[in-house]
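#lab-general

N.A. 3:47 PM
ok so I finally got the sequence cleaned up, no stray characters, all 479 residues accounted for. can someone with queue access submit it? mine expired

B.Y. 3:52 PM
send it over

N.A. 3:53 PM
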Amino acid sequence: MSMQKNIKQLLMGFSLLLLPLHVFAMESSQHEPLDLTSSPIGFISLLVFFIAYLFVMAEEFTLLRKSKPVILAAGIIWAMIGWVYLNHGMSELAEQAIRHNLLEYSELMLFLLVAMTYINGMEERRVFDALRSWLIHKGFSFRQLFWLTGILAFFISPVADNLTTALLMCAVVLAVGGTNTRFVAIACINIVVAANAGGAFSPFGDITTLMVWQKGMIDFWGFFALFLPSVVNFVLPAVIMSLAVPDEKPDSTGEIVVMKRGARRMMILFLLTIATAVSFHNFIGLPPVFGMLTGLSYLQLLGYYLKKTKHKCVAHEMAINNSEEDEIGEVVAFDVFLPIAKAEWDTLLFFYGVVLCVGGLGFLGYLSMASELMYQQWGATFANISVGVLSAIVDNIPVMFAVLTMNPDMSTGQWLLVTLTAGVGGSLLSIGSAAGVALMGQARGQYTFFSHLKWTPVIAIGYVASILTHMWINNSLFS
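B.Y. 4:20 PM
back already:
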């Protein structure tokens, strides 16, 4: 009994250590979160998140998937929060907070999962391979390919995500560039800038724009006010960089790729799914995720149709001499669950860890402190520009989620400004966006951190010019 008593006393003493001193001086409200910013639990939580993010930034070198450290950090942070609130008789408050964060994550995760399923389905139907083959066989020069891949990245990323777009265009560059390291490096930089800029003016172009739209800060059509600033962000650095691209023609190699049956219908259904999500949100007042999940049924029905008309699929596959067979020798038409399985699950789980970590730090009181410093002392404009610079070092997802959690009182123009800067600020460094990190792996040894860093001043010109363009043409939205 004495040992049990000692253990209980030890645990109680540890729980008291985690509380800030001022908690004992006043009785806490049952309806307000505790301010734990000056407590050991607050400092430990900050340290845990910082260490986790060091592992995220070092993913290229450690080969440790970025989702693992942030999920662990989220568990540690919320476990400490739960322990303190349990000992304070306020466990329901902590439970409500974590459920709120889980709801926000689930909406975004399901939305992204449907989009990724469509993208993977189109990849399986050889849509992107056909586009790449067409570009290679047209006999464009290096300078023409530099502009074509950049322009395509700019206009594809608003519909597909900027990561998929960058990987597709990089595959074209690698196929035609070969050992021409100079062309591959500068073309990859241009692709990263273009994909990030294109994703900034569309709710579907990047996870950050999707978060802003789902949160209701900007309506669907409001994002297109960023079109011209995004164009400036892409075109201005591209014009300067294009002067360093050799005006020569590469050798035309590679086979002609034909899309699989159902590819065009799948592209149409993807656009219809986007329209459904927008309609659910704008006309019915429901969250866009319900429209996206409804759109997933379109893809499932297409898969059912292709399966039932497999004899046509067999004839089509035999015609292009590239049939895919299962165990019993029959041609597989389309299985919707294969694209779902191939979704970027590490990205989705990383997003879970980020949302829960930032939500935990916000519940501790740190985001209120940051909001006070940035948006009241610095001012909204300087704070939002700083968000873009910060997103070049730290991933833009936690930065934008932190801003949305702070929820500063800003005009539509300022919300568009932070959307723009968070989207294009990651182009300043190769590690600043998912597109840049992915291309460093895809074009390893040719596109590197330092080859990108060489052109950072030029990209910064586009960054500043896009901000000035937005503040000029959208001046009425700042009032």
